[in-house]
Amino acid sequence: MPPRPLLRRRALIGLAFALANAARWSWELGRSPGSSVASPSPASVGGVDPSPRDDGLAAALPPPRRRRRRPVFELRSPLPLRRRSGDDSSSSLVYPAGPGEEHSPDAIWSADFRAAEELLPLAVESARLRLARSGKHEKENAWGATPGQAKPDADEVASRLRGLTAEERDAVDPEWRIYLLDASDGGMGVWPYYWIQHELAPLVGRRRLHYATRSTQNERYMDSWVRASRDDPGLDFGGYYGKPINFTAMEFNGTRLLEGGCGLVQRLEMSVREDIVSAIDGYVKEHRPEEYEGASTGVPDAEERSLRLGAGVAGLDRPTDVRTFWNASVCNLHCAFRNRIADVVASLPDRHPRLNVSANTDVVGFIHHHGRRHVHPDFIRGMMTTKIIVLAQRDRWEGHSRLFEALLSGALVMTDPMVYYPHGTVDGANLVVYRSWADLELKILYYLDPRNERERMEIGRRGRDAALRHHRAWSQAERLYLNDGGHRNEYGISNRPWPEMPER
């Protein structure tokens, strides 16, 4: 039986956390729908509420409206439509376009923004084919619609497209959408918007053009928090973790970038890695064969089997209490915050010797770019044997692959705050957000208390379920490409897109 001082200490920690959590949740439930914490008002970010709210649970959101299936033409897209295992993807609302389908009236185009110059002539040719098919603007057979007529060259087509009015260009197959996706770490600059506005929009129209980017926040200065918090463990992240970018107000040389440019800007979230899903399924098959066989019985495909493994994964033996999977030896670029959090986790056993906390900050498996493309079995084993995985984002930007990797493991995942949380994630329901060094420590000790083991395991199970249900490539593609107000986009728990620029 633990010594009485230890029991008293655990009880005090549990009571303090429970009171703080109850107060936070009661305050959250009493907030108005449009309010947010430590963030600009929704009006300042284009009418989008960026705050993570308890009523953002997937069960509470309205179901997406069913629509016809749409073909997607992919040009080096960073969000590829993978075929679902075991079937023909007939349940998906978007599917890879077949030969010639990229020119259908309701086609969706998806391209890496770095393939912009490659996209341009393809879009011009598709616009020509669509205009020829429509029979409109047929003066002098400008689009090569007459049988036997020589097709005009690309420069001539481009010149004639520029000669149309903006309304005429937008009217060409209005359901034809073109998405430029920016999945880079470093963030966007002026160039993509300038190119969209001055090169692509004058040829194919503005309203069909959509820009999706991972960089939807700025003014994140977590390295400044590191310096300010040296003598203040309770210093909140509030003024340091970033603010939303108001894309509709962005200007360059006095000109609004989106005016006459693209019709919509959306958030692009990183997706679940299928090789990590397979590796975790393989780990369960090896270490819990009965669980694996039970989840596989009567299941038509691997996707459903992975979902059924949730409770078994969360309940695995996990001898390591808490891990970070990084430390200062490998992270030296915009990593002051990450390294500080790793130091906090590493110091837990020394600062709480009577609690017997096992903490690990070792780097496991492949690192840097190699780790993004390959799966090391030691990394999988490390995640699957850990109760709590603590994540920290870079000093100057948010979002990383480790979030979904950790959620897939079934461990309880703790993360620092985000401006926009991934779709369906809710603090206290399927992950835990820490807001200061002291808050992190308090929450780790709370969830390591044996009395809170069931709560910890349930949050881990829900986190894995959220990653599998909402963040595989096809799920994200449906939300992104079919975002018309009836489908959920990537603005945390908001269903609303950024508003279009008003006409002037």
Pick out its properties.
504 residues, alpha/beta, five-stranded parallel beta sheet, 15 strands, 12% strand
How would you explain this protein's 3D organization?
Helix 5 links the parallel strand 4 (177-182) and strand 5. The radius of gyration is 25 Å and the shape is globular. Mean pLDDT is 78; it is low at 1-11, 17-65, 84-90 and 485-504. The chain has 18 helices and 15 strands. The protein has 504 residues and is α/β, with parallel strands linked by helices. Strands 2-1-3-4-5-10 form a six-stranded parallel beta sheet, sandwiched between helices. The termini are far apart.
Secondary-structure blueprint:
Elements lengths: L3 H26 L40 E6 L18 E3 L11 E5 L3 H19 L19 H10 L2 H5 L6 E6 L8 H14 L4 E5 L3 E4 L1 H7 L12 E4 L6 E2 L2 E2 L7 E4 L6 H14 L1 H8 L5 H7 L1 H5 L5 E4 L12 H11 L1 H4 L7 E2 L7 H6 L3 H8 L1 E5 L11 H7 L3 E4 L16 E2 L3 H12 L4 H18 L2 H9 L23
Parallel strand pairs: 1-2, 1-3, 3-4, 4-5, 5-10, 11-12, 11-13, 13-14, 14-15
Antiparallel strand pairs: 6-7, 8-9
Number of strands: 15
End-to-end CA span: 74 Å
Beta-sheet strand percentage? Answer: 5-15%
Number of helices: 18
Roughly how many Å is the radius of gyration? 25 Å
In round numbers, the mean pLDDT is 78
Q: Structural class from helices and strands?
A: alpha/beta
* Principal-axes shape call: globular
Portion of residues within helices: 25-40%
As residue ranges, the low-confidence spans are 1-11, 17-65, 84-90, 485-504
Major β-sheet strand ordering: 2-1-3-4-5-10
